[in-house]
Amino acid sequence: MQLYSKISGIGSYVPENVVSNHMLEQTLDTSHEWIVARTGIEERRISSDVESSAYMAIEAARKAIETAGISLEEIDMVVVGTTTSTYVMPSTACEVAAGLGISGATAFDVAAACSGFIYAVSVADKFIRCGEARCVLTIGVDRYSRLCNPEDRNTSILFGDGAGAAIIKLSDTPGIEYTELGSDGGKSNILTVKNKERLPYIKEGDNAYLQMDGQDVFKSAVSKFVELIERVQIKKGIHMDDIDMLIPHQANIRIINSVAKRYKLPQAKVFLNVQKYGNTSAASVVLALDEAMQSGQVKEGSRVLMIAFGGGLTWGSVLATL
Q1: What is the crossing angle of helices 253-262 and 32-39, to 10°?
Q2: Are residues 21 and 95 in the same domain?
Q3: CA dihedral in degrees (206, 210, 212, 218; nearest 10)?
Q4: Is 279 a catalytic residue?
Q5: Residue 215's pLDDT is what?
Q6: What is the pLDDT of residues 192-238, one digit of tens each?
Q7: Are residues 137 and 116 in the same domain?
Q8: Mean of all residue pLDDT scores within the chain
Q9: Nearest to 75 by CA among 130, 121, 135
Q10: Name one Pfam family in it (predicted).
């Protein structure tokens, strides 16, 4: 008997604190016009001290569970895509499970930067297809505002905080049709964040803020997005006309527009919310998916292609009928 997995509920959470470009003008050598022209970002949400990755993930998960109409007892696995865990251990997934009151479920984090949610969904899909799980809570969450140097205009303008969650369930009919993951550790130097060494090994002046070669990241992201789209078209024998909505990682509007232009995709078929949230890393794709569904631009039965690219380097895609 063929087993399938399907997305059955979505939820998201963003902090209340809004930081606009005009606010950043007060502390950085930048302007609203400069930021919008180069990134498309107008504002972003910044987490408070109490809004940890686990806190935001739990809030998003509660909404996804409610949307899916399931009980906590049905969840047998929690997979969290994040690179901003509060602790080395426990994992954010274990924090989430405890916070929701789930006991006994498999729980672990996936560290794939901005591709984290795509990785989590792919893992959930495989566990369900092989009969090892029936209902998986997948989450993408990050708070990169804590990783960026507030005095660095090249990085601090880009990132915001947030979380998104999806319930992936065993299904009699196809839902998640195809997933693909990839990485290239040989190019890891273009987007990195260092861990601070613990005492007594802290090095004076050690820079643990996010470091990024923006130009190389831009070129690599466009190249990988195109490659992911080409591969899903070939492997599934489809054309982009067969897709109702492309939901790309919301990192930079110029990356997204470059890909849309290559495939002659109309604006109505490429979802955008980077202007409101900036780059929320692992939360980006699922946050966009939730908003697309809330706005009615994506509905039950819609066929969506989600693609992401992040530090590692990592990348991935999910083709799914909702």
Answers
A1: 30
A2: yes
A3: 170
A4: yes
A5: 86
A6: 888 776 655 555 566 778 888 878 888 888 888 999 999 999 999 99
A7: yes
A8: 93
A9: 135
A10: ACP_syn_III_C
Same domain, 128 and 211: no
Between 34-38, 192-196, 313-317, the lowest mean confidence (pLDDT) is in: 192-196
Q: How far apart, in Å, are the Cα atoms of 114 and each of 40, 169, 310? A: 18, 23, 4
Catalytic residue among 21, 135, 148, 279: 279
Share of the chain above pLDDT 70, in %: 97
Instruction: Look up tokens 């405890």; give the residue.
Output: 98
Task: State yes or no: is 32 an active-site residue.
Answer: no
Domain carrying residue 63: 4-173
Catalytic annotation, pick one of 114, 135, 148, 252: 114
Structurally, how many domains does the chain consist of? Answer: 2
Q: CA 111 to CA 4: how far, in whole Å? A: 25
Q: What is the pLDDT of residues 243-277, one digit of tens each?
A: 999 999 999 999 999 999 999 999 999 999 999 99
C-beta separation of 53 from 82 below 8 A:
yes
How far apart are alpha carbons 220 and 187 in whole angstroms? 9
pLDDT in tens, 1-32: 789 999 999 999 999 999 999 999 999 989 99
Asked if 192 and 263 sit in the same domain, the reply is: yes
Tell me, what CATH number does 97's domain have? 3.40.47.10
Q: Which entry of 94, 135, 148, 249 is annotated as an active-site residue?
A: 249
**How many whole angstroms separate alpha carbon 212 and alpha carbon 220?**
12
Same-domain check for residues 201 and 164: no
- Domain-terminating residue out of 106, 138, 173: 173
Q: Look-up: residue for tokens 């509007």?
A: 253
